[in-house]
Every structure is written in structure tokens, then in C-alpha cells.
Amino acid sequence: MRSWSIPAGRLFGVEIRVHLTFFFLLFFIWGMEKGTQDPTAALRGIALVGIIFGSVSLHELGHALVAHREGVPAKGIVLLPIGGVTILDEAQAIPDSVTAWKRDIRIATTGPLVSFFIAGISALILLSAIPHFPILNRPLVHSDWLLRSLVWSNFYLGLFNILPAYPMDGGRVLRALFSRQMDPIQATQRAVRIGHVFVFLFMMVGILVSNWWLVMIGCLLFMAAQLEERSAVFHSVLQSVRLEEVMLTDFATLSPADTLEDALDKAVHTLQDDFPVVRGSDMVGVISRQKILDALRSDGNGYVQAAMNRLFEVATKQESLASAFRKLAARNLSIIPVVDEQRLVGIITLQNLMHSMALLAESRKLRKGGLDS
Q1: Fewest beta carbons less than 10 Å away: which of 173, 256, 312, 368?
Q2: In angstroms, rounded to a whole number, what is the distance separating the alpha carbons of residues 226 and 210?
Q3: 366 located within any domain
Q4: Could you read off the pLDDT of 263-317 as tens digits, one per residue?
Q5: Cα separation, 134 vs 151, whole angstroms
Q6: What is the pTM assigned to this prediction?
Q7: Is residue 339 part of a domain?
Q8: Are residues 225 and 349 in the same domain?
Q9: What is the percent of the chain with per-residue pLDDT over 70, rounded to a whole number?
């Protein structure tokens, strides 16, 4: 989700990020306007990008709100000029495939309906306020006609998103239909391949007729498809990988009777950022390297017992990686102890998860290559 995007705050608890292609759109519009002698052209270009940004934001919020009502809360939204990618917490989704595909269709169709609604309401308001407003004059979307652009950018956004080109909403409907007969990853990959056909068509037609808007849309569609496919594969890995495959088994522990200076000395000689605190065979808390430093600075040398966090989650080694991520996110934790029959056998930290997943993916590729050969 954080690839090629920057944070733009949170709305209704959902992280909003802006894909860097929005800056590409800004540069693209500036390139079209730079030949004019009008000093206000640049400002109008920025305003047009702002209209598109607001339209896409409302489009994606429609998806997020309906998804929340359907029991699949959104974790984040990545905004692109042609729409966006709403990252859903599918781990909390209904597992029944009989109803899941219908739910996915309802979520997918909400975005275009929101865009068409905004376009219709905007047109009615403009025509009521200005009876002879040239709403059908060309160009329909241009920085010289911002009010008309508000209507038509939303109409085009809705129209474009009903195309069966994944990850557009029409492509999501197509993937939902595919998922009735195959697993989600296969359904996503088939929908992505169909989306690539539209990418090729947009780019070829754009080049042939010298319409660079079509070429840009093709490029953006390709980027969005890759982002969605990576998200689907990542979610699949989270569900399939067991904690025993990625947990740290060689780790340092602390005792509640250790002094903070002793704990810091041990932290200096290990790469761990977080430590389980163990009394005998029982785990009684967790403490981070930063918490040790903060306690030393504020209160001086004391005991780990006074500074450790007694509230922590544990997991079994048979649990999935998705389960670990949910537990880490639920309480904003950075470490989860892994137990087997009440015995501490490993730890999972955010620090090692990303490193382990990259190595795990590479090892699976190597094993698959060995089998193929």
C-alpha cells in the first residue's frame, strides 16, 4: 500500500494515501497549459486536479462505507487519478463464498453510483442556477471550464469504472463472478489479464489518434492493476503461512528482576528491538528497547518489572500470519510471543516479519523452480 504513495491523513479511521501518479497528472495538465499566455492557467490546472482528486476520494469513500456495512472494514485507500484502490481487511470477511461474491459486487458497484450521483446533482444545480449553462459544449473536461469539468469528470469516472478492466469496478465485478468457481488469487489474476487487454487498447488507440489522455489512462490502469494483484497475493501469503515458518526461535529474553541498565546492555548486543520478559517458565510481560531507554532517562536505573508492558497478545505456532498481523494492529503492538503448550517457543516482531516474508517468497520461488526443472 505504501509503494509509490504518500500519506494524506485519515478519514473515518481509514488511512488515505495519494499515489504519485496524481503528481504525474498535475505535470501532464501543466504541460498542456504551458503554451498559453494566460498567467492563471497554472492555477486553473491545479484546481482541475483538485476536482479530480475530490471526485476520486468520494468515489472510494463510497466503497469503504458500503464495505464497512457489509462487515469488511477498509484498512486504507490509495487514490489514483482514474479511481483508487480500497484495501479491505478481508480477514474479517464472511468466509462463505456463496455470499462473498455477492457482497463484493455490492461493494464494487457503489463507487460508480456515487460518481454518477455527484455528476447528476452537479448538473441539476448548475442548470438551475444558470439556465443556459453550456454543459454540453466541448471540451467537456478542461481547466478553462471548471464547473463543467466537475460534472463530466465524475461522469467519466463512473463510466470508466464500469469497464470490465480490473482493477476498475467493472473488473471487480468480473473477479467476483470468477471467484464462484476458483480461489481468489486465480480470480484476481484472470481479471488482471483481461484488464491488460484494455491497457493495450487504450495505449494503442491513444498513440494512433494522438490522444495522450488515453495513453495516460492506459499507464494508470496498468499501475493500478499491479498494485491490486500484489495486494491479493500478499493477502494470500498471510493466510497460508504459519507462524512456525517465520517466527524467531533464537531470541533473547529478560527477567523482571533485571535492572534497566542490564537490559540495555543485553539490547546493545542483539538485533532485537523487543524482548519477552520471563519469570521461570512463565511469560509475564514484554518490553522494547525504546521503552528501556525512556525509563532510564526519566526515572534512572530501576527494574524491568516496573517498566514492562503487562498487556500483550500471544499466538500459537499453528496460527496464520494474517492472525499475527491482526493481533499486532489491534493494540498497536510490536511483538507477539509464540507459545506451544504454554511454553514460549518463538517471537514475532514487525521488524522480522517483512524480512522473513521476503525470504519466504524467494525460497518458495526457488523450490518451485527446482520442481519445474
Answers
A1: 368
A2: 26
A3: no
A4: 998 888 887 888 889 887 778 888 888 899 999 999 888 899 999 988 788 888 8
A5: 12
A6: 0.64
A7: yes
A8: no
A9: 84
